């Protein structure tokens, strides 16, 4: 076998090596950061937070990247995040992905993030699968659990009336939601409060395996409104758990930290103001670039003001300074004699990100090699990544020049780029349901870039379509809504449009200040935007779902009602109102709305499946079966009607058919946790406890810490005579949800089998205290005491 040669470097590694070789100066800042790893955390000289601050172009990102490299050389686990992550869950997801890439996955956090993303994706749809989506109905204080949505079947179902079953599930808990359901609801409604303690615990775990853990948050001037309070909470003792002592946090932004929030952390923090290069540092960089002529050196020093990005840029052709009136852009491009390439470089400032195809669209008349040439320019960051971009200090005057020099050429170029991104958007839509497009990152990025360029080309005429897009994004993905609002703000800045700037600023404020809620942003659209009645009705429907997920059932009914009045042919308004009415037990009104939805949209399977789900919850099982058959025939790729039909067939005693439905539903949607739990129930009835426990293991993996999953496991153990294990599982369920009346009733039967009748009676008493109408528990208590 031939000897293995040295590993070939990747293109990115070569580019990074060039960047590191070009890095000069900042010796004091580098020494300060490196020395901190030599000081034990217990030493008063150790710093846990570094804050790098300075004006744009002063070299903050370059320094922080050098710090990251130094941290890795000290054995640290590192993660670097910038303003591409616009929310705390996105920051956590980025950190988790980078840690996993270094061999230290944060598995518990990843599972919760997966659940949270699923909640966001499903929140707009509110699938009628027998269990409200965690991001929607579970978040409602108004109670969104009704008969059959929690585990009350198994050995206890026996043909009880569905209303009795619902009461037996915990009475008011079936209206207002149990603690386990509330915990899952908190993940949707308060993701930061749920995710952060898990993140801290994971940090503690991995910190035991590495010398240091380092987090770098760049462009902090943009992310501070979202992250500032969270970070100071993290540093507050016992707020979210104990941070590991070997954690070092670095922030890099243009402004000082908020003195109110950070006043108590002075002893933990090293403030590192970054000034422009000194003359010595500028000369060092110029010498490295071969610029030795003193006249040229002095001209670079005069024009750059010591900003490293400008020193690097001007160093490319320091002799071309004869024209004292040359613009900043001409200085940036002074090294290039070819007028075609100079024009191409200006044109390529227009897109927010660059790859080879976009370069060809932005500068169609440029000659070969333009992409490689651009990647060698000193003001281009992210080279050869497919996401290259001009530095803001350079891009801003280039945009200003292009916009003012030839408005027609400016608009034409943006139109070409908008078309290119629209093509990418349309390709990315293949195979994705229309109501999930905003949740898919490739589609979302292309759509937002197409929107940005249309707004730059025609700020006023493109604005109505942009605002209508906001209704869709708010309905599908609240996190993506912030990206949409930021796109409006950036287009306003780059196109110098006050109206776009105002819209972007106000929408960002509304979406940032209200967490995952989108009602405030939709309120802005409803009160300020010039929308058609059909668009206003759509916005009201989306806001109604936002109210509903927050437990504001009356507000949800009001918005749905206004939408119906505004657009009597809006099927989603009728369907949405039916779901709210059904959750409130107003079944007749819900069915009337579903009649209207089917009349307006006879081919829409969602209205049909909602009817089947409503019949199921009413206990009208044969009617539910017929309607769910029809819903499945209308959309065989939809897992929800199959899941609901499986539960109906199980209740009718048709267990083999129920198992087939659940198998098919889970094949269509492998992460369909609700169907996994119900299939476990069917498998147990069919004498397959091993398969049932496997389903519950998978359900627990998908959504850990659910009381219902533990309760179902207890049922499997009890059905197979493993009463001690059943008692333990019911106990775990009750630890997660102390008001879980059904688990108390089931544990009472397990206690009885173990001869612990007093314990059984105590559980039944507690179940009846929680739900005085729990008829089954009362019957069991009377039997044991009679």
Please provide a written account of the structure:
With 786 residues, the protein is mainly α. Helix content is 64%, strand content 4%. Strands 2-3-4-1-5 form a five-stranded parallel β-sheet, with helices on both faces. It has a two-stranded antiparallel sheet with strand order 6-7. Helix 38 packs antiparallel against helix 39 and helix 39 runs antiparallel to helix 40 (775-785). Residues 124-181 and 320-326 have low confidence and may be disordered.
Structural class: mainly alpha
Low confidence ranges: 124-181, 320-326
Spatial order of strands in the largest sheet: 2-3-4-1-5
- Main β-sheet: number of strands, strand sense, barrel status? 5 strands, parallel
- Helix count, DSSP H or I runs of 4 or more residues: 40
Shape: globular
Which whole number gives the mean pLDDT? 84
Residues in helices, as a percent range: 55-70%
Q: Strand-residue fraction?
A: under 5%
First and last CA, distance: 84 Å
What is the number of beta strands? 7
Cα Rg: 31 Å
Per-chain topology:
Layout (H helix, E strand, L loop, with lengths): L10 H12 L4 H10 L12 E5 L6 H14 L2 E6 L6 H14 L5 H17 L38 H7 L4 H4 L2 H11 L1 H17 L4 E6 L2 H16 L11 E7 L5 H4 L6 E5 L5 H10 L5 H11 L3 H7 L13 H5 L6 H9 L8 H7 L7 H6 L4 E2 L7 E2 L1 H14 L1 H22 L12 H17 L1 H18 L1 H17 L3 H16 L5 H10 L4 H17 L3 H14 L4 H13 L3 H14 L4 H14 L2 H14 L4 H13 L3 H14 L4 H13 L3 H14 L4 H13 L3 H14 L4 H13 L3 H14 L4 H11 L1
Parallel strand pairs: 1-4, 1-5, 2-3, 3-4
Antiparallel strand pairs: 6-7
Helix pairs in contact: 2-3, 4-5, 5-9, 8-9, 13-14, 19-20, 20-21, 21-22, 21-23, 22-23, 22-26, 23-24, 25-26, 26-27, 26-28, 27-28, 28-29, 28-30, 29-30, 30-31, 30-32, 31-32, 32-33, 32-34, 33-34, 34-35, 34-36, 35-36, 36-37, 36-38, 37-38, 38-39, 39-40
């Amino acid at each position: 076998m031939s000897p293995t040669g040295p590993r070939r470097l990747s293109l990115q590694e070569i580019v990074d090596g060039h960047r590191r070789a070009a890095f000069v100066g900042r010796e004091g800042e580098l020494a300060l950061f490196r020395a901190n790893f030599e000081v034990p955390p217990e030493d008063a000289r150790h710093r846990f937070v570094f804050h790098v601050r300075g004006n744009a172009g002063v070299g903050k990102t370059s320094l922080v990247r050098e710090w990251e490299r130094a941290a890795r050389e000290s054995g640290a686990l590192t993660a670097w995040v910038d303003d591409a992550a616009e929310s705390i869950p996105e920051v956590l997801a980025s950190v988790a992905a980078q840690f996993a890439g270094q061999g230290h996955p944060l598995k518990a956090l990843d599972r919760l993030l997966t659940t949270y993303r699923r909640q966001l994706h499903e929140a707009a749809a509110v699938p009628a699968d027998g269990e409200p989506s965690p991001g929607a109905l579970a978040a409602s204080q108004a109670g969104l659990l009704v008969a059959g949505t929690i585990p009350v079947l198994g050995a206890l179902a026996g043909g009880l009336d569905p209303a009795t079953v619902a009461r037996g599930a915990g009475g008011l808990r079936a209206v207002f939601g149990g603690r386990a359901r509330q915990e899952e609801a908190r993940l949707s409604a308060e993701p930061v409060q749920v995710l952060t303690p898990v993140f801290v615990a994971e940090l503690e775990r991995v910190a035991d395996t590495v010398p240091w853990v380092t987090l770098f948050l760049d462009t902090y001037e943009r992310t501070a409104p979202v992250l500032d309070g969270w970070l100071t909470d993290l540093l507050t003792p016992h707020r979210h758990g104990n941070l590991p002592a070997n954690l070092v946090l670095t922030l890099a932004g243009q402004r000082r930290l908020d003195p109110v929030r950070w006043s108590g952390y002075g002893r933990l923090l090293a403030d590192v103001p970054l000034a422009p290069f000194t003359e010595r540092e500028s000369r060092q960089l110029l010498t490295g670039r071969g610029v030795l002529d003193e006249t040229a050196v002095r001209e670079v020093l005069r024009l750059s003001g010591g900003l490293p990005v400008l020193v690097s840029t001007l160093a490319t052709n320091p002799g071309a300074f004869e024209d004292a009136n040359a613009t900043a852009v001409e200085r940036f491009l002074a090294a290039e004699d070819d007028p075609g390439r100079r024009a191409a470089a200006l044109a390529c400032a227009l897109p927010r990100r660059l790859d080879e195809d976009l370069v060809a669209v932005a500068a169609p008349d440029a000659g070969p090699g333009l992409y490689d040439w651009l990647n060698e320019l000193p003001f281009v960051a992210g080279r050869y990544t497919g996401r290259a971009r001009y530095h803001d200090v350079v891009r801003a005057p280039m945009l200003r020049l292009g916009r003012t020099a030839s408005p027609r050429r400016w608009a034409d170029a943006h139109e070409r780029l908008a078309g290119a991104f629209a093509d990418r958007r349309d390709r990315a839509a293949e195979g994705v349901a229309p109501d999930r497009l905003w949740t898919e990152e490739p589609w979302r990025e292309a759509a937002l870039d197409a929107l940005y360029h249309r707004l730059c080309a025609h700020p006023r005429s493109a604005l109505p379509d942009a605002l209508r897009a906001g209704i869709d994004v708010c309905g599908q993905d609240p996190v993506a809504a912030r990206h949409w609002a930021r796109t409006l703000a950036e287009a306003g800045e780059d196109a110098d449009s006050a109206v776009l700037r105002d819209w972007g600023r106000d929408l960002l404020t509304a979406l940032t200040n209200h967490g995952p809620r989108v009602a405030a942003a939709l309120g802005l659209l409803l009160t300020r935007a010039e929308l058609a009645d059909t668009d206003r009705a759509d916005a009201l429907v989306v806001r109604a779902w936002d109210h509903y997920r927050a437990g504001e059932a009356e507000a949800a009914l009001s918005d749905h009602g206004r939408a119906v009045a505004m657009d009597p042919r809006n099927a989603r308004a009728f369907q949405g109102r039916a779901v709210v009415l059904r959750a409130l037990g107003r079944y007749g009104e819900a069915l009337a709305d579903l009649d209207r939805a089917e009349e307006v949209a006879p081919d829409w399977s969602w209205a049909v499946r909602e009817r089947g789900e409503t019949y199921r919850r009413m206990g009208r099982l044969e009617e539910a079966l017929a309607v769910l058959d029809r819903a499945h025939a209308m959309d065989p790729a939809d897992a929800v009607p199959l899941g609901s039909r499986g539960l109906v067939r199980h209740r009718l005693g048709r267990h083999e058919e129920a198992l087939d439905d659940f198998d098919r539903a889970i094949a269509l949607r492998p992460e369909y946790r609700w169907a996994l739990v119900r299939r476990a129930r069917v498998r147990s009835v069919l004498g397959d406890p091993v398969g049932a426990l496997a389903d519950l293991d998978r359900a627990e993996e998908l959504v850990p810490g659910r009381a219902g999953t533990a309760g179902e496991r207890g049922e499997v153990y009890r059905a197979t005579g493993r009463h001690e294990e059943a008692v333990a599982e019911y106990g775990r369920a009750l630890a997660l949800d102390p008001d879980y009346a059904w688990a108390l009733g089931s544990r009472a039967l397990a206690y009885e089998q173990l001869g612990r009748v007093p314990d059984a009676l105590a559980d039944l008493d507690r179940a009846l205290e929680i739900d005085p109408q729990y008829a089954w528990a009362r019957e069991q208590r009377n039997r044991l005491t009679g």
